[in-house]
Automatic annotation (TrEMBL):
Keywords: Transferase
CDD domains attached to this UniProt entry: NAT_SF (cd04301)
Xref: InterPro entries: Acyl/Acetyltrans_Enzymes, Acyl_CoA_acyltransferase, GNAT_dom, YitH/HolE_GNAT
PANTHER family, per database record: SLL0310 PROTEIN
Domain of life: Bacteria
Name used for this protein in its record: N-acetyltransferase GCN5
Molecular-function GO terms, alphabetical: acyltransferase activity, transferring groups other than amino-acyl groups
SUPFAM superfamilies with a match to the protein in the record: Acyl-CoA N-acyltransferases (Nat)
N-acetyltransferase domain residues: 17-151
Length: 297
């Protein structure tokens, strides 16, 4: 976290405090802070995050040194997502976080805004107009599964599938199109992506990504037409990291996703509150077996 000493009378009105847009170097610092908070980000997340919206990341500084951050990613004109909301511990409780929050919310403007917040902060988010939609649960386990065939489909390297087919599937599972982000997410140097393709028509029935993190590997997204397809994708991904820690963030309101985690001996270790400023997007949660990332939705 920040090594900048916090003066006893530091306030966000002091001219030594400022908020500016992040640089790629700042993003690396923000993800280091996220790791310190125990959020376990992916080792290559920064590049993909910036691809989603290079203008939607902000850093709070004192005498030019970073002391806090927030992401406010605009997915087009209608939807945005708040994440990476962190203030260095020594600087908390003084109003700096609120200044960062206001910067992010102002940037997103009239969009429907989502976030995955820690449960204890729900009252504060409600004050800003957010309403609980459902909870997401992080499950942790050990990768101990072999590939499992599913009748009528084949599991393929997602990068061998025409990108537009994956994008079309992703758009149906997310709140809107996110082509730039998805292209970068699939191409992460320490990630593997698999797609489930129907043998009789080349249609996509699901896809998933596993990426290396500070601890173990995270799977996200894991989108699938049904539980057998999700199971096959999960097993195809973890078969390459046998014996290592693996994490899956699932919507609690999808019982099949919870069942997938439980049947692979995964344990609940963390929860977030998925909240929106307007009605929850019309996303088929029955097909969301793994959230892409708590930071960007």
């Amino acid at each position: 976290m920040s090594s900048v000493p916090c003066p006893d009378r530091a306030t966000p009105d002091d001219l030594r405090f400022g908020v500016r847009r992040m640089t790629p170097g700042d993003a690396d610092i923000a993800l280091d802070w996220a790791a310190s908070e125990g959020w376990n980000p992916g080792l290559d997340d920064a590049r993909s995050f910036f691809a989603a919206d290079p203008h939607g990341f902000f850093v709070g500084t004192w005498d030019g040194a970073p002391i806090g951050c927030i992401s406010a990613v605009a997915y087009g004109d209608a939807f945005g997502f708040i994440g990476l909301y962190i203030v260095s511990p020594a600087w908390r409780g003084k109003g700096f976080g609120m200044r960062l929050w206001e910067e992010g919310m102002t940037y997103l403007g009239a969009r429907n805004i989502g976030l995955d917040g820690v449960l204890a902060q729900q009252p504060n988010y409600r004050k800003s107009g957010f309403v609980l939609a459902y909870r997401n649960v992080r499950y942790e386990g050990v990768a101990l599964a072999d590939d499992e065939p599913v009748d009528g489909v084949t599991i393929a390297d997602a990068l061998s599938v025409p990108f537009e087919r994956l994008l079309d599937y992703d758009t149906r599972m997310f709140a809107c199109e996110r082509a730039a982000f998805l292209r970068a997410w699939l191409a992460q140097p320490q990630a593997h992506a698999r797609a489930c393709i129907a043998i009789d028509g080349d249609s996509v029935r699901g896809f998933a990504v596993i990426r290396r993190c500070g601890t173990g590997h995270k799977i996200g997204p894991l989108f699938a037409d049904d539980l057998p397809t999700a199971r096959a994708l999960y097993r195809a991904l973890v078969s390459g990291v046998q014996g290592e820690a693996v994490f899956l963030d699932v919507p609690e309101s999808n019982p099949a996703a919870v069942a997938l985690a439980v049947e692979h001996d995964m344990q609940s270790v963390f929860e977030t509150a998925r909240m929106y400023t307007r009605a929850a997007p019309d996303v088929p949660l029955a097909n969301v077996f793994g959230v892409t990332t708590f930071e960007l939705g």
